[in-house]
Amino acid sequence: MKFLVFTFVLCATGLVFGQSYGGSMMKDSSSSSSDSSMMKSSGAMAVSQDERQMSADPMDITLFNLKGLGPQVIAYTSEKDAWSLAASQKVVYFFAATWCPDCQATYRDIKANYSTIPGNFTIVFVNYDKAKALKAKYGITVQHSFVLIGPDGQAQKSWAGTSAVADIVKTALSM
Q1: DSSP 61-126
Q2: Which residues on adjacent β-strands are paired with residue 124?
Q3: Is 75 left (phi over 0), alpha (psi -120 to 50) or beta?
Q4: 74-91 per-position pLDDT tens digit
Q5: What confidence tens digit (pLDDT) does each residue in 128-142 have?
Q6: Greater confidence, 105 or 28?
Q7: Is the dihedral of CA 22, 27, 55, 94 positive or negative?
Q8: Domains of the chain, with CATH numbers?
Q9: Rounded CA gap, 36 and 14, in Å?
Q10: What share of the chain in percent tops pLDDT 90?
Q11: Which pLDDT score is estimated for 148?
Q12: What does residue 114 show for φ and ψ, rounded to 5 degrees?
């Protein structure tokens, strides 16, 4: 039981896949608190105050580190932000869950090949576990799903299962 709790805490705090993400649509999480370090508590690692605040964000997907992946790979902040991008380029929501092996494989491919994403194309990471209203709006029932959106938020195309950046771009541009 202690191993499961410890594993969950490691995953929840981002120690498995890295630090928090960055990007042009990211909310600022650089504020500090008096308790910004990890603490030991009854044999397991406790979550710091900063991490509790970050995980309170319903779209937080800190286990996917988007920092440095360029302006074409960003974290979801709001529909309005995504719609404004979609007015001038292709925007694909990627409904990703950090616990999903297929989502992790796609993340690794995006990380390795982000420089091949066209300048007029953006992949927006959406937290599958916490974006309930957005999932309902687009009829998303499984993680590792993609939705190409238009400038007023309408779904132009949706699909699941693509793992490679080249396939994501190809599928979206075939619209």
Answers
A1: -TTS--TTS-TTEEE---HHHHHHHHTTSEEEEEEE-TT-HHHHHHHHHHHHHGGGS-TTEEEEEE
A2: 74, 93
A3: beta
A4: 999 999 999 999 999 999
A5: 999 999 999 999 999
A6: 105
A7: negative
A8: 2-55 (no CATH), 73-173 (3.40.30.10)
A9: 14
A10: 54
A11: 96
A12: -60, -30
Token pair 């009829």 is found at 139
Best CA proximity match to 168, nearest among 151, 136, 145: 145
Closest CA to 127 of 48, 47, 31, 63: 63
Please give the Cα distance from 127 to 94 (Å, whole number): 8
Tokens found for residue 16: 């498995």
User: How many Å from the N-terminal Cα to the C-terminal Cα in the chain?
Assistant: 49
Torsion over CA of 135, 141, 142 and 147, rounded to 10 degrees? -50
DSSP letters, 13-75, are HTTTT-S----TTPPP-----S--S-EEETTEEEPPHHHHHHHTSTT--TTS--TTS-TTEEE
Helix (H) or strand (E) holding 173: helix 165-173
List Cβ neighbours of 1 (8 Å cut-off, separation of 6 or more).
Answer: none
